Amino acid sequence: MNTHAGHLVSHHAAAHDGGTCRICAKPLKHSFADLGMSPLCESFLPADKLDEMEPFFPLHAYVCDDCFLVQLKEYVSPSHIFTEYAYFSSYSTSWVAHAKSYCEMIKHRLGLGPDSLAVELASNDGYLLQHFIALGVPVLGIEPAANVAKAAIDKGVPTRVEFFGETYAQTLAGEGMMADLIIGNNVLAQVPDVNDFVAGIAQLLKPEGVVTLEFPHIERLMAENQFDTIYHEHFSYFSLGTIEKLAARHRLKVFDVEELPTHGGSIRVYLAHATSTRPLTNRVAGVLGREVARGLRSVDTYTKFDANVRQTKRRLLSFLISAKNAGKRICGYGAPGKGNTLLNYCGIGTDFIDFTVDRNPYKHGRFTPGMHIPIRPVEAIEAARPDYILILPWNLKTEIISQMRFVKDWGAKFIVPIPEVTVIDPKEFRS
Ligand SMILES: [Zn+2]
Asked: Which helix (H) or strand (E) holds 151?
């Protein structure tokens, strides 16, 4: 992905102010995490671009003292980020399995059938809606990236290439389309105008319809120091309390919530019209109560987070400096978006990490944005026999260590950077 000046969103406000909240429009005065200047984390570079200038933007998250939304300014418009998208959800077998079990569960729970309509927003390559088709439930996908939408259409999933919001919901209503179920998995965080998006959801939803939204839970981000999940393409970081406020602005209510292990700890929130007869479950009060107990309705809890981030950086660098002083060789495993936040914020380049490896062939021969660490096929680890392997997609550490257990043959150990730097010897690892 290349960035062109024409796609950049201009800001006329003074440098280093937080702007205004994208839910309630109040001025943002409180810093949550200042990760310095960073390139777009999915902009992997081919070798012939390494000598060119690379755009960097402030990676500075603020928290709103009214609705407690943690957020980044929009520096690059989604029409640039998402029009041609390199991520196909179907590449991840565990994510497709997660989608399948969701479809079976929700069909049963809501009693969906041949007269229902399930709409997924940011439906990607049809990884989820394909399961509803198999279950006899009509579907519509809405996906802004034409290349991934085409993959969905090719497998028989009806898909519109559009950005979703109130205007497009009105267009669908004009065609007589109203949804029994609206699904948004990991999309709300990537929408700059969340009010327009949720207004569109309210418009598209039948009177007794249900919305499910999945997203990483900021409670887990803070508790487990997952600051590397902050990146430019990810504008907003939600608690359940914040979602409840956002929903209420559009006369929607939260009536259920589930906690999920995906993406380092996510929640699935169930919404309905405020006038709906759906009963409220005890789980909502349970999660809201825990958020209050952990201080998520107090701005001080958020402003203290930056100190943890800085400490994690110092500890990781201390470890890497000691290892290099001892003559150790280190490589990376994985080149996920979050790895690039970690590497750029900590300033970890080829002075520490010789190379990293990835399973996605698109990334082979390319270089990580900003730090320019070469990305090779996974087999490169066996050839290089490094002393340490830094796991960048730490949420998959169990799976990766199990697959790479053979590195014990030459005495290599794994480094897991988050929540704090930990060394794991595969000889002693039990999955
Ligand atoms: Zn706000």
From this structure: helix 146-154
pLDDT in tens, 76-134: 776 665 555 566 777 677 788 889 999 999 999 999 999 999 999 999 999 999 999 99
**Strand ordering across the sheet containing 205-216:** 159-160, 139-142, 118-121, 179-185, 205-216, 266-273, 252-260
Task: Compute, in angstroms, the gap from residue 298 CA to the centroid of ligand 1.
Answer: 13
Quick one: tokens of 335? Answer: 């080149």
pLDDT, one tens digit per residue, over 148-162 is 999 999 999 999 999
Angle at 183 between CA 181 and CA 188, to 5 degrees: 140
Give 22 Cα–ligand 1 centroid separation in angstroms.
Answer: 7
- Return phi, psi of residue 356, to 5°: -125, 170
pTM over 0.85: yes
Instruction: Encode 400-423: b = buried (16+ Cβ within 10 Å), e = exposed.
Output: bbeebeebeeeebbbbbbbeebee
DSSP-based three-state secondary structure for 300? helix
246 CA → ligand 1 middle, Å: 9
Taking the centre of ligand 1 as the mean of its atom positions, its distance from the CA of residue 299, in whole angstroms, is 12
